[in-house]
């Protein structure tokens, strides 16, 4: 029996700004009442982001409610880490449209990650871990998946520097979301069971 996906979209974004050369920064989205998100951001900020900054002078935007003191303390003058905390839906959509790559550096946590599906919906190129890609069919077609800090940093740098690849991934994500997360896709699964 095929499972019905937990995330279903009725409408899709009609036009995603696909000139990735005009986009800047890396984005993480996730609430900090959830311990895996705290771990993910601390791991990224301490072990991965410094490797990226050696090559790219990019900013890392951290979005999510209930920011802990430990997360707040990551933002230091000149280190490229910007803790946005909780933002409105409009602001979040703007960040998805203006940041070049979304990072989901989860090291534990179960099930399909809503933040990954949301990033796909917004047409974002994503670098994640095997935990972040868990339960997402054909994940490697629409995102880069890697589990060690060095590999993660390399994937981010390589994706960030290749704006054509970003544009291609953006198109792929839209096909993907329609294929797996549309009302029609959900109904086709239901139809198979009856």
Shape, per Cα inertia axes: globular
**Assembly state here?**
single chain
How large is the radius of gyration? Answer: 16 Å
H/E element order: EHEHEHEHEHEHHH
Helicity level: 40-55%
Strand percentage lies at 5-15%
Q: Please count the beta strands (DSSP E, at least 2 residues each).
A: 6
User: Could you give the distance between the termini?
Assistant: 11 Å
Give the spatial strand order of the biggest sheet: 3-2-1-4-5-6
Largest sheet: 6 strands, parallel
Structural class by secondary-structure content: alpha/beta
Q: Unreliable segments (pLDDT under 50, ≥5 consecutive)?
A: none
Topology:
Layout (H helix, E strand, L loop, with lengths): L25 E4 L5 H19 L6 E4 L5 H4 L8 E5 L3 H10 L2 E4 L9 H8 L4 E3 L10 H4 L1 E2 L3 H13 L1 H19 L1 H11 L1
Defining key terms:
globular; 194 residues; 6 strands; six-stranded parallel β-sheet; alpha/beta
Describe this entry's structure for a reader:
33% of the residues are buried. Helix content is 45%, strand content 11%. The longest helix has 19 residues, at 35-53. It is of the alpha/beta class.
Structure summarized in a few sentences:
The protein has 194 residues and is an alpha/beta fold. The protein has helices at residues 35-53, 69-72, 89-98, 114-121, 139-142, 149-161, 163-181, 183-193, and strands at 26-29, 60-63, 81-85, 101-104, 126-128, 144-145.
């Amino acid at each position: 029996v095929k499972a019905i996906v937990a995330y279903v979209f009725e409408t899709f974004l009609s036009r995603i700004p696909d000139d990735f050369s005009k986009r800047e920064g890396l984005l993480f989205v996730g609430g900090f009442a959830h311990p895996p998100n705290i771990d993910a951001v601390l791991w990224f900020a301490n072990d991965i982001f410094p490797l990226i900054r050696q090559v790219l002078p990019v900013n890392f935007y951290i979005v999510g409610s209930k920011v802990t003191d430990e997360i707040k303390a990551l933002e230091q003058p000149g280190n490229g880490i910007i803790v946005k905390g909780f933002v409105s839906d409009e602001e979040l959509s703007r960040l998805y449209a203006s940041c070049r790559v979304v990072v989901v550096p989860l090291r534990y946590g179960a099930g399909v990650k809503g933040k990954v599906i949301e990033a796909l919906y917004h047409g974002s190129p994503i670098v994640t871990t095997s935990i972040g890609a868990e339960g997402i069919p054909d994940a490697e077609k629409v995102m880069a998946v890697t589990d060690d800090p060095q590999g993660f940093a390399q994937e981010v740098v390589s994706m960030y520097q290749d704006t054509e690849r970003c544009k291609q991934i953006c198109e792929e994500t839209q096909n993907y979301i329609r294929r797996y997360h549309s009302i029609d896709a959900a109904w086709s699964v239901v139809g198979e069971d009856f």
